[in-house]
C-alpha cells in the first residue's frame, strides 16, 4: 500500500487571499498548452498552413474561457444540478473542484467554431491543431484532483492502494493518477508524435477522441462513481462512461471516414 501525501489544497496564503493548488493546476495547464502551441506554430509546415504566434495567442485566450466556463457548467448540468440550483453561489467556487471534461470539451469546440469563422479557417483544422495541446491540461487537472483528495477509486487490496482522508479507512485506487498517466502523459506522447506532420483533416481529433474515450471508460471501472449519481445502469455504467460513448463514436467516424 502507498502512503497518500496529504498535501494541503492551499498552496499559498497571502493574508485573506488563498491560492489553491487546483487553481494553479489550471494555470500550469494553460501555460503548457500555450508554450506547445507557440512552438508548433513556429514550425515551417504549420507556418505554411497559416499559423503564427498572434493567431495562437488569440485562439488560446478564447479556448481558456471555453475550458473554464464549459467545464464548470458541464459539471453543474451533468453531475450535481439539484445542489447548484439550491445554492447558485457554489457554481463560482471552482477552487473546490467540480469540473467536467466533457463540458470543457463542448466549451472548447464552441469557442473553436466561433474563432475559426472569425478567422476564416476550417473548423476541423483548428480542432486538429488544438487536440494535442489538451493532454497536458488533463494531466495537471487530475493532479489537482489528487491533491484535493477527490475522485478516488474503489476499495482495493493491491499494492497501489491509498487511504484518502475523505475516502474512509480502507485503501482505494488512486484513479486520479491512473487518469493523469493515461489521459495526460500517454495521450500526449501519442498525439504529439502522430501530429508531428500535418495529417488529413480530422484524423488528429479522431485519434484524441478515441484514445481519451477508451482510457476514461477503462479507468471508470476502478473509480468510485459520484455519490449523488452512483451507477446509472447494469451496476457498473457511470456518467463518465456514458458521456464517452458519443465521443468514441465521433472519434471513430473522424478516423475512418473517407478523405476527399
TrEMBL record:
GO terms for molecular function: phosphatidylglycerol-prolipoprotein diacylglyceryl transferase activity. PANTHER family: PHOSPHATIDYLGLYCEROL--PROLIPOPROTEIN DIACYLGLYCERYL TRANSFERASE, PROLIPOPROTEIN DIACYLGLYCERYL TRANSFERASE. It is a multi-pass membrane protein. It comes from Bilophila wadsworthia (strain 3_1_6). It is an enzyme of class 2 (transferase). This is Phosphatidylglycerol--prolipoprotein diacylglyceryl transferase. Belongs to the Lgt family. It comes from the Bacteria. InterPro entries: Lgt (IPR001640). Its EC number is 2.5.1.145. Keywords: Cell membrane, Lipoprotein, Membrane, Transferase, Transmembrane, Transmembrane helix. A 1,2-diacyl-sn-glycero-3-phospho-(1'-sn-glycerol) binds at residue 142.
Amino acid at each position: 500500500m502507498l502512503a497518500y501525501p496529504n498535501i494541503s489544497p492551499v498552496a499559498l496564503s497571502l493574508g485573506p487571499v488563498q491560492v489553491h493548488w487546483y487553481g494553479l493546476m489550471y494555470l500550469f495547464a494553460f501555460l503548457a498548452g500555450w508554450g506547445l502551441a507557440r512552438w508548433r506554430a513556429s514550425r515551417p509546415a504549420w507556418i505554411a498552413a497559416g499559423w503564427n504566434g498572434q493567431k495562437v495567442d488569440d485562439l488560446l485566450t478564447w479556448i481558456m474561457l471555453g475550458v473554464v466556463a464549459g467545464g464548470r457548467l458541464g459539471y453543474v448540468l451533468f453531475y450535481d444540478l439539484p445542489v447548484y440550483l439550491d445554492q447558485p453561489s457554489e457554481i463560482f467556487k471552482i477552487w473546490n473542484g467540480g469540473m467536467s471534461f466533457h463540458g470543457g470539451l463542448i466549451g472548447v469546440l464552441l469557442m473553436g467554431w466561433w474563432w475559426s469563422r472569425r478567422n476564416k479557417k476550417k473548423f476541423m483544422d483548428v480542432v486538429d491543431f488544438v487536440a494535442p495541446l489538451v493532454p497536458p491540461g488533463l494531466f495537471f487537472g487530475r493532479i489537482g484532483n489528487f491533491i484535493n483528495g477527490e475522485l478516488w477509486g474503489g476499495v482495493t487490496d493491491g499494492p497501489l492502494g491509498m487511504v484518502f482522508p475523505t475516502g474512509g479507512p480502507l485503501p482505494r485506487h488512486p484513479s486520479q493518477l491512473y487518469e493523469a498517466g493515461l489521459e495526460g502523459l500517454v495521450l500526449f506522447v501519442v498525439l504529439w508524435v502522430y501530429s508531428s506532420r500535418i495529417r488529413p483533416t480530422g484524423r488528429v481529433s479522431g485519434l484524441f477522441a478515441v484514445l481519451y474515450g477508451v482510457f476514461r471508460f477503462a479507468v471508470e471501472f476502478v473509480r468510485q462513481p459520484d455519490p449523488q449519481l452512483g451507477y446509472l445502469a447494469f451496476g457498473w455504467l457511470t456518467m463518465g462512461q456514458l458521456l464517452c460513448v458519443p465521443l468514441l463514436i465521433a472519434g471513430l467516424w473522424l478516423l475512418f471516414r473517407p478523405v476527399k
